C-alpha cells in the first residue's frame, strides 16, 4: 500500500496550522482512554463546485456525542462548520474526506479527571473505503465472532473514539479471514451493523434495516438512503432481523460516509441473491451519487458548496 500523502493544512484549536504542527501531548486523556468524539464527512465535486454533504447534520451529531460524554466543546457549531470549509479551501481539494473531532486533552490522569477539550478538523482525499471495485462488484462479508456492546453499557448512539475498538476487532478479524468486511450481531443475537457501516437488506423490492436499538450508530448516510428511498416509492421497514436473513435476502448492502453504498455479494461464503448488486441497490446508488452530478434534485438542502 502506498504511503498516505498528507495535506498541508489542518484546523486545530481555532487556528489553521501546518499538518505537522497540529500536535497533542502523549499523556492526553483521549489517547489513553478513548475519550474523543468525531465525525466523518465527504465533500464531492458537483456541477456547482465542491460541495460538502450534510455538513451541519454531521457536526450537530458531533455536539450530541460530546453531550453524551459530558464534554463541553469550546467552539460553537458555526465555527466548526466554517473550519470544515476552510481546511478544504486551504488544501485546494475538490473531493475530500473531513474529520472534525474533539478529545480530552492534557490534564488530570484519572478516568473522571477534568481536562481541557481540544478540537481539530483534518481533511484528505479518500477513494472508495472498501476498495476501488467494491462499489461496482460488491464485497464478500462474514458475521464476526465479536458482538456489539449490550444496552446500557457503552452508548452506541455516540460516535466516540472508544466505541470503535469494537469495530476494529470486527474489521481486523474479517480481513484476517479473507473477507472484505465484518458484520456484527447485537448482544441479543440479532443483526446490528457492520464494523463501521449500517446494513440494508432487500426483500421483494422493499428495504429492511435494523433499528437504532440494535446497538448501532444512527448513520447520516443511512438516514439519507431511507429518505431517498421513500421519496422514490421504495418501501422502508425498520425492524429486528435475525442472522439467517443475511442468507435469505434478495440483496444486501452496507452504507456509511466512508463506505458510501457498498453491495455485499456473499456472507459467510453463501451467495446473496444473484451474487451481484441487485436492482434496488443500483437504484439507490444512482439516487445517492446523482445528488453530486445533478441527476438527483437536492430537495432536502443536503449539499453545501464552498
From TrEMBL:
<dbReference type="GO" id="GO:0009098">
    <property type="term" value="P:L-leucine biosynthetic process"/>
</dbReference>
<dbReference type="InterPro" id="IPR043132">
    <property type="entry name" value="BCAT-like_C"/>
</dbReference>
<dbReference type="InterPro" id="IPR018300">
    <property type="entry name" value="Aminotrans_IV_CS"/>
</dbReference>
<comment type="function">
    <text>Involved in the biosynthesis of p-aminobenzoate (PABA), a precursor of tetrahydrofolate. Converts 4-amino-4-deoxychorismate into 4-aminobenzoate (PABA) and pyruvate.</text>
</comment>
<dbReference type="GO" id="GO:0004084">
    <property type="term" value="F:branched-chain-amino-acid transaminase activity"/>
</dbReference>
<dbReference type="InterPro" id="IPR036038">
    <property type="entry name" value="Aminotransferase-like"/>
</dbReference>
<dbReference type="InterPro" id="IPR001544">
    <property type="entry name" value="Aminotrans_IV"/>
</dbReference>
<keyword id="KW-0028">Amino-acid biosynthesis</keyword>
<dbReference type="InterPro" id="IPR050571">
    <property type="entry name" value="Class-IV_PLP-Dep_Aminotrnsfr"/>
</dbReference>
<keyword id="KW-0289">Folate biosynthesis</keyword>
<dbReference type="InterPro" id="IPR043131">
    <property type="entry name" value="BCAT-like_N"/>
</dbReference>
<comment type="pathway">
    <text>Amino-acid biosynthesis; L-valine biosynthesis; L-valine from pyruvate: step 4/4.</text>
</comment>
<comment type="pathway">
    <text>Amino-acid biosynthesis; L-isoleucine biosynthesis; L-isoleucine from 2-oxobutanoate: step 4/4.</text>
</comment>
<dbReference type="InterPro" id="IPR033939">
    <property type="entry name" value="BCAT_family"/>
</dbReference>
<dbReference type="GO" id="GO:0009099">
    <property type="term" value="P:L-valine biosynthetic process"/>
</dbReference>
<dbReference type="GO" id="GO:0008696">
    <property type="term" value="F:4-amino-4-deoxychorismate lyase activity"/>
</dbReference>
<keyword id="KW-0663">Pyridoxal phosphate</keyword>
<dbReference type="GO" id="GO:0046656">
    <property type="term" value="P:folic acid biosynthetic process"/>
</dbReference>
<dbReference type="Pfam" id="PF01063">
    <property type="entry name" value="Aminotran_4"/>
</dbReference>
<dbReference type="GO" id="GO:0005829">
    <property type="term" value="C:cytosol"/>
</dbReference>
<dbReference type="InterPro" id="IPR005785">
    <property type="entry name" value="B_amino_transI"/>
</dbReference>
<keyword id="KW-0032">Aminotransferase</keyword>
<comment type="function">
    <text>Acts on leucine, isoleucine and valine.</text>
</comment>
<keyword id="KW-0808">Transferase</keyword>
<keyword id="KW-0100">Branched-chain amino acid biosynthesis</keyword>
<dbReference type="GO" id="GO:0009097">
    <property type="term" value="P:isoleucine biosynthetic process"/>
</dbReference>
<dbReference type="GO" id="GO:0006532">
    <property type="term" value="P:aspartate biosynthetic process"/>
</dbReference>
<protein>
    <recommendedName>
        <fullName>Branched-chain-amino-acid aminotransferase</fullName>
        <ecNumber>2.6.1.42</ecNumber>
    </recommendedName>
</protein>
<comment type="similarity">
    <text>Belongs to the class-IV pyridoxal-phosphate-dependent aminotransferase family.</text>
</comment>
